[in-house]
């Protein structure tokens, strides 16, 4: 195979290790060299990055990508009503084509706002995988399982998860990995969670689950199992380093200790938690205790976008107001949550999340000559507090250019918008 290489010349580089100036040489899917200056001789493609900020692609650790189709459908509701009265009835009409269309739309949105890896739980995941493959993004995907204690449903959910594992794990040159996705402790039976734990151990797969999102959930789990959600999950031997729990809003101090001692990874979803008025996760306490807290948007029906730049700002502001302390969750910490902590949560810290030689070339370039971030002075501050997804100009994932100078290269944006608009209209008309 001929070597494909890209030289990103004279960039300002920012990642969890700090700031420096330099050029980055990409060879095939990986970063080959980072130096103050690299000769462009023999290089296939040179990107002039003067006046540009080069950052690791964001890692969104909790999404339901195809829910882009439900954007703006059921706003201003509490989680229980949102799910029971609006979202689940609509989801009953989903099919593979709709999920593919919604996932493609989500991929467009993520590329345009600098995300290169995401952790997705939903339905018709082989169709979602197809969209991810075409987009050039990297993803961990899981079939979302709900059994409500029904044995037949449990067997069907496990069967579908196994089918998705067989069909999609390692797809798209390894860019797609499959995880197990039990929805939550209030929608999944103890038996289903036990089976998930066994499968995760047997095949070395991650587990993606919603936990402790609302006070109501804590009440329900306590009523049914006698304990708070994370204590219950620990007692049944479910928790481990391979578990990524989304939300983790309502936590007792014993639960925080459990999270730390079991090495559970968290995905903090501040916009969704605020919009559904679920509550505020004790992110500062969790980080101070040494728990790995990453960042996720949740689906576009509860956010209502997939912009990780916006999510970083919301995360920082929310902790400041929760603690009534402006020093809480500073910009540097939030930036780490959106990059290297996300990589660590997905077990990929050796591969992505920072800009280092031998890591995958998953990168985003920000144009520093945009009005929203002028005068250009403090990259971390500007990224978290001033920039938005629109300031992302170019994106590379796995060494492939997915967007250059604001133009999508891997997907036809107009076609995707049309496809998703039609799918959403057809789907809603069925409900
Ligand atoms: C079984 S696939 C995923 C399932 O989760 C639903 N969902 C989306 N956002 C949330 C959330 O914040 N809490 C709980 N469940 C959520 C989604 O609609 C699917 O049914
Ligand atoms: Zn969710």
From TrEMBL:
**Protein keywords:** Hydrolase, Metal-binding, Zinc
Q: Report domain Amidohydrolase-related positions.
A: 54-401
Enzyme class name = hydrolase
Q: Which cofactor does it need?
A: Zn(2+)
Cross-referenced SUPFAM superfamilies: Composite domain of metallo-dependent hydrolases, Metallo-dependent hydrolases
- Is Hydrolase there in the keyword field? yes
**This protein's record includes keyword rRNA-binding:** no
Q: Which reaction does it catalyse?
A: 5'-deoxyadenosine + H2O + H(+) = 5'-deoxyinosine + NH4(+); S-methyl-5'-thioadenosine + H2O + H(+) = S-methyl-5'-thioinosine + NH4(+); S-adenosyl-L-homocysteine + H2O + H(+) = S-inosyl-L-homocysteine + NH4(+); adenosine + H2O + H(+) = inosine + NH4(+)
Q: Which residues bind Zn(2+)?
A: 62, 64, 210, 298
Provide the binding site for substrate: 91, 183, 213, 298
- Return any one Pfam family short name: Amidohydro_1
GO BP annotations, alphabetical order? S-adenosylmethionine biosynthetic process
Tell me the route in metabolism or biology where this protein functions.
Amino-acid biosynthesis; S-adenosyl-L-methionine biosynthesis
Where does the secretion signal sit in this chain?
none
The Swiss-Prot or TrEMBL record annotates one GO molecular function as: 5'-methylthioadenosine deaminase activity
Which EC numbers characterise this protein's activity in its record?
3.5.4.41, 3.5.4.31, 3.5.4.4, 3.5.4.28
Cofactor-binding details, from the entry: Binds 1 zinc ion per subunit.
Note from the entry: SAH is a product of SAM methyltransferases and is known to be a feedback inhibitor of these enzymes. As a result of this inhibition, organisms have evolved efficient enzymes to metabolize SAH via different pathways. The pathway found in methanogens differs from the canonical pathway, it uses the deamination of S-adenosyl-L-homocysteine to form S-inosyl-L-homocysteine for the regeneration of SAM from S-adenosyl-L-homocysteine. 5'-deoxyadenosine is a radical SAM enzyme reaction product which strongly inhibits radical SAM enzymes.
> How is this protein organized at the quaternary level?
Homotetramer.
Q: Describe its function.
A: Catalyzes the deamination of three SAM-derived enzymatic products, namely 5'-deoxyadenosine, S-adenosyl-L-homocysteine, and 5'-methylthioadenosine, to produce the inosine analogs. Can also deaminate adenosine. The preferred substrate for this enzyme is 5'-deoxyadenosine, but all these substrates are efficiently deaminated. Likely functions in a S-adenosyl-L-methionine (SAM) recycling pathway from S-adenosyl-L-homocysteine (SAH) produced from SAM-dependent methylation reactions.
Family label = Belongs to the metallo-dependent hydrolases superfamily. MTA/SAH deaminase family.
Q: Which HAMAP family match?
A: MTA_SAH_deamin
Q: What is this protein called?
A: 5'-deoxyadenosine deaminase
What species is this protein from? Methanothermobacter tenebrarum
